[in-house]
Amino acid sequence: MNQKRIISLLAAGTEIVCELGLEAQLVGRSHECDYPESILNRSVCSSAMLDPTANSLEIDKQVKGILTDALSFYQIDRELIKQLKPDVIITQTQCEVCAVSLSDVENALEDLLDYPVEIISLEPDNLDAVFNDIKTVSEILGVPDRGADLLDRMHERTDLIQHKLKFITQKPTVACIEWLSPLRIAGNWTPEMVELAGGSAVLSENGKHSPAINWMDLVQADPEIIIAMPCGFSIERTLKEMDLLLQEIYFKDLQAVKNNKFFIADGNQYFNRSGPRIVDSVEILAEIINPKQFIFGYEGEGWIKFSL
């Protein structure tokens, strides 16, 4: 097998590479790649132009300012990439804000290397696309059998959930909050994951970008379950910003809040990453939506119940 030198500028891409057993070939990563921990010693090839310590509203303002000025959200270390001599670079075109994008990589590589580099650009917008991306990466990196095996294991886990839910007809309505201020409801693959876990997703559509909503949209939908999973946020980070929701006059009137069905999940490590742990995210949702049927052991680490 050809030992290709790989740089992954996408957290999900790094996880795919490692799950395929190719971690030894990973020579560089993005500033956001932090799993598995064994890759933290790899060279960091990117940095964010946004202030990650700002709160949700301030980050949103920064994003809009950068978009207005037609600038990039990320900076790539061209000299480091030149030194690392990659054969393959993994990036994405799904979201310009969430991670280093294809255009960022193409601009950085212009007149940089004297040999061709293969760019794998992932663009997942639903679960099938996530699975197809894993298949594509495994084929390009020369390990299609490992990719097929990984996908079989992932499908087995989702099939198990579907089997246990076969005779459960009641599907509670679920809203997954992807950003706190302004409010955004998680789209792309999240509605499909909610359905797989036995719920009925509201206020967003499978395969479409996460929509911005106002508070009256949430009040009128009045979902039975609400899960906050802000993009790039850990549970601890979300807890620090819960005042953004608590200050809303309608928050305490939501039935999910009154019935103690408001949860916080780790969006950064699970739901926002379109890699192998997307199935972990489905299992987390199954635990939250159907706690009598599923106990996978994620509570406390992958999700918590939030009470006033």
Written account of the structure:
The chain is an alpha/beta fold and 308 residues long. It folds into 2 domains: 6-123, Rossmann fold, CATH 3.40.50.1980; 167-305, 3-Layer(aba) Sandwich (Rossmann fold). Helix content is 38%, strand content 15%. It contains 13 helices and 13 strands. The protein has helices at 11-19, 56-68, 78-84, 102-109, 127-140, 144-164, 190-196, 215-221, 235-240, 243-246, 255-258, 267-271, 278-289, and strands at 6-8, 26-29, 43-44, 46-48, 74-76, 88-92, 118-122, 173-179, 184-185, 200-201, 225-228, 262-265, 303-305. Strands 8, 9, 10, 11, 12 and 13 form a 6-stranded mixed β-sheet that branches. A 5-stranded parallel β-sheet has the order 3-2-1-6-7, with helices on both faces. β6 (88-92), α4 (102-109) and β7 (118-122) form a beta-alpha-beta unit. The longest helix has 21 residues, at 144-164. It is globular and about 60 Å long. The termini are far apart. The model has no long low-confidence stretch (mean pLDDT 92).
TL;DR?
With 308 residues, this protein is α/β, with parallel strands linked by helices. The protein is 38% helix and 15% strand.
Query: Whole-Å distance between the termini?
Result: 56 Å
**How much beta, percentage-wise?**
15-25%
CATH class of the largest domain: Alpha Beta
CATH superfamily of the largest domain: Nitrogenase molybdenum iron protein domain
Question: How would you sum up the major sheet?
Answer: 6 strands, mixed
CATH-defined topology of the largest domain: Rossmann fold
**Total helical segments:** 13
CATH architecture field of the largest domain: 3-Layer(aba) Sandwich
- What is the 3D shape? globular
Element order: H for helix, E for strand: EHEEEHEHEHEHHEEHEHEHHHEHHE
